[in-house]
Amino acid sequence: MVQIGNYHIGKAENAEKPVLDSGEAFLLWDELVSRYDIIELTQIYLNFAHDPDFKQLLRRGLFNTLEKQVNILEKEANRYQILLPNRPPKSVNIPADTTLLEDRFMFRQIFLGIQYMIDTHIRTIRSFTTNDPLRKMFIQFAKDELDIFNNLCKFGKLKGWLQAPPVYQTPQ
Predict the structure, then answer these.
(1) 39-70: per-residue pLDDT in tens?
(2) Nearest Cα to 27, choosing from 115, 133, 134?
(3) Would 169 be classed as within a structural domain?
(4) What CATH number corresponds to the domain at position 122?
(5) Domain for residue 164, yes or no?
(6) Tens digits of per-residue pLDDT, 112-169?
(7) How many domains, in total, are found in the chain?
(8) Using CA atoms, how far apart are residues 109 and 116, in angstroms rounded to an integer?
């Protein structure tokens, strides 16, 4: 039985083996490619970051969020026999002038990226109509992203790195 609100509807179809449609297969692959790109960019940013708090934030995002989500996505892709894209290198070391990028700029790029990923998660969730477990997984990813966004807002305000719009005052 499937329960929707107070209603119980027939036997759950494909309860033993979830169905994956072609659009969902692409989205699973595309989300994995996206995480790989973000991991590589985060590793590059770690080479240029100066602020110890910002470095810690980058490491936490890399290991506690991105790598964990990649492991989950790879497991699901393997489960559905979707070919995995090429993984980024384990680390990116750039022996360059570390003053090239400023922490504030890198933070702003990450902040914008998080906003973009929230939108992407919502669009992805809307597209997972036939596979309940994957839809649930992406809902959790979206919740995690919202928590990260909330923490980045606090971090950015603390560091003075957010572009705060001017305060609106009503005419007297």
Answers:
(1) 999 999 998 999 999 999 999 999 999 999 99
(2) 134
(3) no
(4) 1.20.1260.10
(5) no
(6) 999 999 999 999 999 998 899 999 999 999 999 999 999 999 999 999 999 888 888 8
(7) 1
(8) 10
Does a structural domain hold residue 48? yes
How far apart CA 134 and CA 116 sit, in angstroms, is 20
Find the helix or strand (DSSP H, E) in which 3 lies. strand 2-4
Q: Alpha helix locations (H) across 21-172? A: 22-48, 52-60, 67-79, 103-127, 132-159
Residue 95 lies in a domain: no
- How far is the C-alpha of 34 from the C-alpha of 29, rounded, in Å? 9
**Maximum distance among all alpha carbons in the chain?**
66
Q: What is the CA radius of gyration of the chain?
A: 20
Domain of 68, in residue numbers:
18-86+100-159
CA pair distance 73, 84, nearest whole angstrom = 10
pLDDT tens per residue across span 67-124: 999 999 999 999 999 999 998 877 777 765 667 789 999 999 999 999 999 999 999 9
The single residue listed with the structure tokens 């995480």 is: 35
